[in-house]
Amino acid sequence: MSARRRRRAAAEEEEEEEEEEEEATEAGSDKEVDLEERLRELDLRSDSDIPDVPLPTDSTPEILKKALSGLSARWKNWWIRGILSIAMISGFFLIIYLGSFMLMLLVLSIQVKCYHEIITIGYRVYHSYDLPWFRSLSWYFLMCVNYFFYGETVADYFATFVQRREQLQFLIRYHRFISFALYLTGFCMFVLSLVKKHYRLQFYMFAWTHVTLLITVTQSHLVIQNLFEGMIWFLVPISSVICNDITAYIFGFFFGRTPLIKLSPKKTWEGFIGGFFSTVVFGFIFSYFLAQHQYFVCPVEYNSETNRFVTECEASELFQMKKYSVPPLLQAVLGWETVNMYPFQMHSFALSTFASLIGPFGGFFASGFKRAFKIKDFADTIPGHGGIMDRFDCQYLMATFVHVYITSFIRGPNPSKLLKQLLILQPEQQLSVYKTLKSHLVEKGILQPSLRG
Q1: Which GO CC annotations does the UniProt entry carry (predicted)?
Q2: Eight-class DSSP state of 409
């Protein structure tokens, strides 16, 4: 009997355990259903359902608030924007004076700040503050992508400097493998950080991070590439966008009547057209001034002997004064048959046109982004202007155009860069190149076969 009772008691315990497991499974399934419903709502929600992001605070200095307290809100904003614009332009000229290296640091600083502003919006919109490791991973991916792009720049423009340092030779030789290994580490960390309750949200933010990297890091790398072609390729496009932004605002403020686009209700056709003509004239005159100075037109190169960036060269044909015939229609208006100008001024017309006609669409895109997530500005870094990204939304689009323009219409073979690459080769490889080049020149009749070397 005792054995039978024990078996019956064991059977009853097993039944109770099965019932508890079923209840736990049902409870877990209910939680999963609730979670799936919440995520489905996140996927299907309309723009009006996007949670409100806290509005940025007013960061205007108290001294400006007191000085402008008697003005209307419209004129107060006008004066704040104007004063801060003059301060930023003055600081920009100071950095130009300090040289190319400081400009590169400025571009890097702007890139990091823009990345921070966009990523922060993602955190707020998707309430992802508590996602495991995600803040660290976002900045880790930024470091990886910057390591890759800036390493490519070092390998391309600082070959002579690298050649003298063995530890750098290893890093440059295996640069792409190291970059890929770093990215894979972050990728694996992301996979390991996945939590059952946050799968979809984590992938939202993973995509958000990569799109932000594409917008900020890739474009800032192109800005630096343009800078190495000559400071004029950096200054004219950036200044054209700034000029268009300022003049379009002024024309729109005083003469604006006709709305331009629904995404930006304050933009007007009067501001758009006035900004276009002002930017073209500015670009033409500014290019004339810069083209006269070697400091602005020479490619930026690194001198390994002095450990400094140098801008010394013989000006290319783009920056040598030439005489052009004035079209017959303009001869009657101007009274000139010929005009002296730099060829680069013709290119500045293309750059200024893009900055004033297509560049603003970068701003419209940013306006649509901000409207989608119910925010006025990306941040409150600059009083009257918003965040850094609010000021540079058009610059990134401009940087891509300039890079494509240079590679398509300007850049040719660079003997200096080719020579640097040849100097990195092993002696036997250099000798092989020399023999091949000599044979080619003999066949072309440039060298005599009897020439010894």
Answers
A1: endoplasmic reticulum membrane
A2: I
Candidates 68, 198, 54; CA nearest to 133 is: 198
pTM (2 d.p.):
0.77
Whether residue 52 lies inside any domain: the answer is no
DSSP state of 319: G
Going by pLDDT thresholds of 50, 70 and 90, the confidence category of residue 58 is low
DSSP 299: P
Contact 271, 264 (CB under 8 A): no
Residue 54 lies in a domain: no
Residue located via tokens 């932004």: 245
Under the phi-then-psi rule, with left for phi > 0, alpha for psi from -120 to 50, and beta for the rest, what region is 99? left
Positive or negative CA dihedral for 197, 200, 202, 205? negative
Looking at mean pLDDT, say which of 151-165, 230-244, 413-427 comes out highest.
Answer: 230-244
Its domain, for residue 250, covers 99-131+195-308+342-404
For residue 290, tell me if it sits in a domain.
yes
**Separation between Cα atoms, residue 344 and residue 297, nearest integer Å:** 10
E strands, 74-152, are: none
| Separation of alpha carbons 38 and 45, rounded Å | 10
* 323 bridge partner residues: 340
Beta strands 308-310 and 301-303, pairing class: antiparallel
Domain count, the chain: 1
Separation in Å, CA 255 to CA 85, 266, 270: 21, 12, 6
Instruction: Name the burial class of residue 276, with classes exposed (0-12), middle (13-18) and buried (19+) by CB atoms within 10 angstroms of its CB.
Output: buried
Q: Phi and psi of 355, rounded to 5°?
A: -60, -30
